[in-house]
Design goal:
Layout (H helix, E strand, L loop, with lengths): L8 H19 L4 E2 L1 H8 L3 H9 L11 E2 H12 L5 E6 L3 H8 L8 E8 L8 E2 L2 E5 L3 H7 L4 E4 L3 H13 L4 E4 L12 E4 L2 H18 L1
Parallel strand pairs: 3-4, 3-7, 4-6, 7-8, 8-9
Antiparallel strand pairs: 1-2, 5-6
Helix pairs in contact: 1-4, 2-3
The structure holds 1,4-dihydronicotinamide adenine dinucleotide (NAI).
């Protein structure tokens, strides 16, 4: 078993945030940081951060802080960001196009290879370097191309069927934007994205603030 298999999901969920803030420190030329500084940036407690980073063998020495570049590279490696990933997006509407056009992903090595849709008005158009293809050709495409991640941005009525179709072609990772929990075999990893859950939490705190005034 890889030693990273033992890392708890809660720790794994915090790593992207460390990675992002370490990237910001790097951008402004900061070479050393501390758990206290990372705590101020991320909102996690300094002891939580030290505990998290100790999971990976300890990147810093007490009193000397962490080397920003080394820590960022190491976290990137744990997350697998040192490799290249090929994505396709199914459903080239508002969300699908926004993802295809979002350049932030390209800081890490994610390539949107193609989009797929059933709407003839969209088929043939390009989003950045990726062409929107006919969904009818998806199985043939996946038979020929090595794709790591499928992004589902279709209406929820078809997302389960689409997910089943792509896993039949060997896909193991699905980034699902459709508001439905996909039923998938255990060896397929699905990450659901729900902007409205985040908005609802915000709404709750907004109302709390108003109550307190
Ligand atoms: P949209 O209607 O702009 O785009 C959906 C696209 O899917 C259309 O281009 C349509 O032609 C295509 N499509 C429909 N059936 C298809 C099929 N069988 N095969 C291939 N393509 C097909 O919708 P929008 O706004 O982009 O939303 C897409 C999904 O994302 C919806 O399920 C929506 O509820 C969800 N959504 C999720 C959010 C989130 O936070 N996760 C936020 C907003 C929307």
């Amino acid at each position: 078993m890889d030693k990273n298999d033992r890392i708890s999901p809660a720790v794994i969920r915090r790593l992207p945030k460390y990675y992002r803030y370490l990237g910001e420190l790097k951008k402004i030329g900061v070479n050393k940081t501390s758990s206290r500084e990372l705590s101020e940036m991320t909102g996690f407690s300094a002891s939580q951060i030290r505990q998290d980073l100790n999971n990976f063998g300890g990147f810093g020495q007490q009193g000397f802080g962490y080397d920003v570049e080394k820590l960022r590279t190491a976290i990137g490696k744990i997350l697998g960001l040192d490799k290249k990933y090929r994505l396709i997006i199914i459903g080239a509407g508002n969300i699908g196009q926004a993802i295809a056009n979002y350049t932030g992903f390209y800081e890490a090595d994610y390539e949107v290879v193609a989009l797929f849709d059933k709407n003839p008005k969209l088929i043939g158009l390009s989003m950045r370097n990726a062409v929107i293809k006919d969904i009818d050709g998806i199985e043939e495409f996946l038979g020929k191309e090595k794709i790591d991640i499928v992004v589902i941005c279709t209406p929820k009525s078809v997302c389960q069927q689409i997910a089943e179709q792509v896993i039949k072609c060997g896909i193991k990772a699905i980034w699902n934007f459709a508001p439905k929990d996909l039923k998938m075999p255990e060896d397929v990893y699905v990450e659901n994205v729900h902007l409205n859950e985040s908005l609802f939490s915000l709404t709750y705190y907004y109302n709390k603030l108003n109550e307190e005034e």
